[in-house]
Amino acid sequence: MTQSTYQLVASDFDLTLAGLPHSHISDRTKRALEGLRERGVPFAIASGRGPSGLFHHLERNSISPEGFYFCGYGGAEIIQAWDGTEIASNRLNGSAARKAFEVASDFPVEVLPHLGEFAYASNVGGLANRGQAWSDGLTLLDITPEGVEELRPSKILISGEPDVLERVATALGEELADSIEVTLSATTLLEVNAAGVNKGWALWALADHLGIDHTATVAFGDNFNDIPMLRAAGLGVAVGNAVPEAKLAADRVTFSCDDDGLAYVLEELFAL
Q1: Minimal CA–CA distance to 44: which of 89, 85, 12, 74?
Q2: Which one of 15, 18, 63, 76 has the lowest number of neighbouring Cβ atoms within 10 Å?
Q3: Can you tell me the distance from the alpha carbon of 55 to that of 45, in angstroms, rounded to the nearest whole number?
């Protein structure tokens, strides 16, 4: 495809668009995003973070959300970033959410259901829970398994050691294989969504909403939960710091996040 035929760009947030630990977006990347905006090319942030957290981070980086979209919670919630208009929502089934919460809570992990501007936990004092809520500017509230069922969260985030998360994922698969989607978003983070919900589904749903052919999309990512999106896009691009599996799923590999790999490709594709 030539530069003029791509009509939608989507990117993961952490370690693809923004560097850690402070979620800083470089000046070069900011200029590339502004170039997309000036050309009228829709840009979506597809992240395990929720829309509230993504808006918080754009604001911290002094970036306007005008013309942007959020595919938050791993693709469960798609909104127009500039005014919050909902395009699609796929929250967990109540009974499945409760069961996933209970199964995960049997392991030495911290379990954090998300919805809107809130994060919920049975252990609000947990370091990982408090850190996740603080990072996204969320209010952290106590919750019971019954409360999780009533809440029907958009996503459940599970924090723990890699070997423990592997056992959690196996247990969740045995109990809820037909009701949930489980994926790693980092070596110490496991995400639970409704069955069939992932970033690839969200990319296609947003493209359909905008009347854009799926082959006219570009997606950037670095981790396991980005793989469905990299495969779904017309052009899937893994940053240089991506996990090997994401690089294999991508059509091309660019420089690392710290070396402005996303901006480099956008400059090339859209003559920025």
Answers
A1: 12
A2: 63
A3: 10
**225 vs 157: CA distance, rounded Å:** 13
pLDDT(39) > 90: yes
Q: Which amino acid is at 162?
A: P
Report the pLDDT averaged over residues 253-272: 96
Residues 152 and 47: their CA atoms lie apart, in Å, by 19
Domains and CATH numbers, the chain: 3-89+197-270 (3.40.50.1000), 94-194 (3.30.1240.10)
DSSP state of 161: -
Q: Which amino acid is at 220?
A: F
Two structure tokens written together for 188: 């110490």
- In degrees, rounded to 5, the angle at the alpha carbon of residue 62 between the alpha carbons of residues 59 and 65 is 60
Residue 244, classified by CB atoms within 10 Å of its CB into exposed (0-12), middle (13-18) or buried (19+), is: exposed
Model pTM above 0.85: yes
CA distance 103 to 93: 15
Among 97, 70, 265, which residue's Cα sits nearest to residue 195? 97
Secondary structure element (H or E) that encloses residue 156, with its range: strand 155-159
pLDDT in tens, 187-245: 999 999 999 999 999 999 999 999 999 999 999 999 999 999 999 999 999 999 999 99
Per the DSSP assignment, residues forming a β-bridge with 194 are 180
| Omega within 30 of 0 (cis) for the link into 162 | no
Rounded-to-integer distance, Cα 178 and Cα 68, Å:
33
